[in-house]
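debug: dumping io for the single-chain case to check the tokenizer round-trip. Nothing else runs in this session.
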Amino acid sequence: MFTGLAFLPLVFDTMVGMSKKLDKIFPKNFYWGAASASYQVEGGIENCDWAQAAREGKVPECGDACDHYHKYQGDFDIAKDLGHNATRISLEWARIEPEEGKFDKSAIEHYKKVLQYIVSKDMTPFVTLWHFTLPQWLADKGGFESPDAAEYFARYCEHVVRELGDECRHWATINEPVVFASNGYMRGNWPPFKKRFRSYEKTFKNLAKAHKLAYKRVKNLDIGCEVGIVKDNIYFHGNWNPFNKIIAACMNWWWNRRFLNKISGNFDSIGLNYYFHKKFGDKATYEKTDMGWDIYPEGLYYTIRELKQYDKPIFIAEAGIADERDIHRAEYIRDLVYWTALAVERGANVRAFMYWSLLDNFEWALGFEKRFGLIEIDYKTQKRKVRESAYVYKKICQNNGVVD
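debug: decoded output
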């Protein structure tokens, strides 16, 4: 029997009482914040595979992005003013290890200052060690297809946590491993632009190996930190047709569970990224985001519940909407929080909610066209403007729960 079928009873479970008014707020010490990623916001990173691909005209240039590398204090000041008590960032591997085996002390010192500033604002940092971009030296060696990639990655993670472990207790190794492997090695629209299933499978296995080795190395430092994974999960479901439900169950295993099962026993928490649902046999139409994605916030409930089998704390590492005119964002955030609250009320061990994203940013192969941010960026002037939806989210953060 496909393990993905375990999610089917959730349909009935959710329908019962789903319109009930939730009185319960979130647990005490719940983390509220927003997320960002180094290459997408920092600017000035020219020694990685994405920068090289841009020079070759294969992807848009990132350039200065939001200049967050220099403006991080002001950005986190805004986050604090918006009621956030946590924030999720990533570190740039190419800055920290610009040459194989040579670590840049100034880069470590910069990120130490960033983390210390976050803490000084009474916010808790959640740090992802790697968010898609590879140092050029590793890309030249074949990236995560290299037989030595896991060792390179574990060495990097161990070094960073040894140096910065006093500043942060919540670490994640890899962001969205299946998205990275799919876009780079099967769809071919991200570096290294391959369309080979064999390359995908090799990368998939090496990513799992890299995570497990990094997890063990970091835990052996014995500094009492949490080491998790950030996983991109989709809510797959089907209509009344049993065949469509079986397809959904298979996809649930293939996309959502396969990687987590492969690294089972080697993570302390799961960061959940939610953006998509796919209903097989569905003829319904949905409102769309600026990305053309269905607006379907209830799928977050299901993806949270599907993680129950791993019996680990969950934090929502990313959930958000591209909405340049800020028409749907406030309602979408309220709905995401509602469905998270319902999951918590029904026993899910969710510890944090991080909206994606704090700032408008570089959206990979789409460049700067799509805008997810609570904070609008004028890329010509680098001026920041807080969107109205950010103040709705502020009320949620201050209330520690659902607001009307």
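debug: round-trip ok. The domain at 3-399 is CATH 3.20.20.80 (TIM Barrel).
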